[in-house]
Amino acid sequence: MTSAPALEVERVSHAFGARKALDDVSLVAPSGAFTALLGQNGAGKTTLFSLVTRLYQNASGAIRVEGFDVRRTPSQALARLGVVFQARTLDLELTVMQNLQYHAALHGIGGREARGRARALLERFGLADRAGERVRSLSGGQMRRVEIARALLHGPSLLLLDEPTVGLDIGSRRALLAETRRLIAEDGVGVLWATHLVDEIEAADGVVALHQGRVAFSGDVAGLKAQGGADDVGAAFLALVEPGASRGHAA
Ligand SMILES: Nc1ncnc2c1ncn2[C@@H]1O[C@H](COP(=O)(O)OP(=O)(O)OP(=O)(O)O)[C@@H](O)[C@H]1O
């Protein structure tokens, strides 16, 4: 066991040409906790995920997964990282089990071991009876659960989810959040959940508010409300990022 946080981002900046997408961003997502990365469209959430997953190289600063620097020790860092991207990435024509086995193979987990892990995860997400079906036949919420199961196949200690509830109905959103929180409680994974929906955040969560590529707030929900001078998360967030706006929600 390590005492390093699931994720540490230290003074990271990233630009696309002249446009600064991230400007001196630092944050921590502890192990065994839910941290919401709250930000409106264009805040820089996806860019940050792309840097953590090494889709882009971090131009400046440092990113560590459970203490492993993603640039200097990429294989150790990536082995501890599971990710669910905003766009769906399952192969619709393959079965649920084939999708999971394919991903397990990419992590060097083969045959019986892969099937065993996949079955256990599908069981956990209430999808054991769908293993042999093509992904195309699943609902949006079920596909998201398969993607989370896939992200967990290699036993990561950090799970990144980029706006995972987009396009889901209210029941599926709640179920996905509940399952993610159960994972944290049972397995102790650290979760960084990117969202613009303030109602996905609970009182005990960590919050990092990103605005125009900068961290506008980092701390707990009570601290966000105190700093924003409002009793609800949406109003507090808006007060911090758009001081001119007096009411409303981040969504
Ligand atoms: N590949 C790219 N090329 C140029 N600019 C980009 C690219 N990707 C993102 N950007 C810009 O960087 C900024 C941050 O975008 P990013 O996608 O990280 O935001 P986001 O918080 O994920 O937004 P959303 O909630 O809309 O997904 C935006 O100004 C965006 O236009």
Automatic annotation (TrEMBL):
Matches recorded under PROSITE patterns: ABC_TRANSPORTER_1 (PS00211), ABC_TRANSPORTER_2 (PS50893)
Classification via SUPFAM superfamilies: P-loop containing nucleoside triphosphate hydrolases
Domain ABC transporter as annotated: residue spans: 7-237
InterPro entries recorded: AAA+_ATPase, ABC_transporter-like_ATP-bd, ABC_transporter-like_CS, ABC_transporter_ATP-binding, ABC_transprt_ATP-bd_su_PQQ, P-loop_NTPase
GO molecular function terms attached to this record: ATP binding; ATP hydrolysis activity
UniProt keywords, alphabetically: ATP-binding, Nodulation, Nucleotide-binding, Transport
Signal peptide coordinates: none
Domain of life, per lineage: Bacteria
PANTHER family assigned: ABC TRANSPORTER ATP-BINDING PROTEIN, ABC TRANSPORTER ATP-BINDING PROTEIN NATA
Family according to the record: Belongs to the ABC transporter superfamily.
Protein's UniProt name: ABC transporter ATP-binding protein
